[in-house]
Amino acid sequence: MGDARVNQRVIDLADILAAAASGSWPDTFASPGGYRAFRRVVSRPRATPASVRAAHTRLTRDRMARAEHLVLVLHGTTELDFSGRAVPGRGPIGHGGGRGWRCHNTPAVDPRTGAVLGLAHPILHRRTAPGVTAAEGVAGKRARVDRESRLWWDGVTAVGDAPAGRTWVHVCDRGPTPPSSSSR
Questions:
Q1: In terms of C-beta density within 10 A (0-12 exposed, 13-18 middle, 19 or more buried), how is residue 104 classed?
Q2: How is 17-43 classified by DSSP, letter by letter?
Q3: Could you say which DSSP state residue 86 is in?
Q4: What is the rounded CA–CA span in Å between residue 135 and residue 137?
Q5: Pairing of the two strands 71-81 and 91-93
Q6: Domain 56-184 classified CATH 3.10.350.10?
Q7: Cβ proximity of 69 and 63 under 8 Å
Q8: Which of 103, 122, 105, 179 is nearest to 145 (CA)?
Q9: Which of 101, 102, 112, 125 has an alpha carbon within 20 to 30 A of 78's alpha carbon?
């Protein structure tokens, strides 16, 4: 994030949050000062999801590129439920009664050992309301830039091709059909 001290603070905060995976963020920190420090870091304009995960993604891709055997690149989506919370930017989740985001994660795994090499690419997706309508027609539905079925294809595309001499196999739980070039 442009400052070695802030980068180290982000790593330290991630360790604290990972160790206390449940409960509220204020309760996670040992003191009010620790929580204030957390708020200062995450409130920085440069503290975007992409900037925070950039080093991890780079490390994951390096591990994938160095893997001497096949690497499985797994694609799956889960819902982040923020229903009943005053969090801006949420969209409908589930059958429309909840509010939050769809999180499409792409971890890389060594199939021989089961070791996770890291998160190769995440996509945070907000469904639009009211969603797809019957009046839109098939062509209109397929042309939507925010179409959920594109998450798998976008994940495959973002990870990219394996370097020469390496094999990455993308495993998807539902079909990543590439969008036609006219609807991309």
A1: buried
A2: HHHT-SS-HHHHSSSHHHHHHHHHHHT
A3: -
A4: 6
A5: unpaired
A6: no
A7: no
A8: 179
A9: 112
Is the predicted pLDDT of residue 67 greater than 80, yes or no?
Answer: yes
Task: Please give the distance of CA 164 from its chain centroid, rounded to a whole number.
Answer: 26
Encode pLDDT of 8-39 as tens digits: 887 788 788 778 766 777 788 878 888 888 88
Radius of gyration of the chain, Cα coordinates, nearest whole angstrom: 19
pLDDT at 1: 64
* Cα–Cα distance, 89 to 100 (Å, whole number): 8
Among residues 114, 115, 117, 122, the alpha carbon closest in space to that of 64 is found at 117
Average pLDDT over residues 94-101: 86
- Helix or strand or coil: residue 99? strand
Residue with tokens 């160095």: 66
> Cβ contacts of residue 138 below 8 Å, gap of 6+?
none
In the structure, what pLDDT confidence band is assigned to residue 56 with cuts at 50, 70 and 90? confident
Q: How far apart are CA 86 and CA 151, in angstroms?
A: 26
**Residue (of 35, 55, 32, 31) closest to 43 by Cα position:** 35
Q: How far is CA 72 from CA 5, 113, 114, 156, 176, in A?
A: 34, 11, 10, 12, 16
Give this prediction's pTM: 0.72
| Token output for 177 | 């059909």
User: CA 89, CA 1: separation in Å to the nearest integer?
Assistant: 24
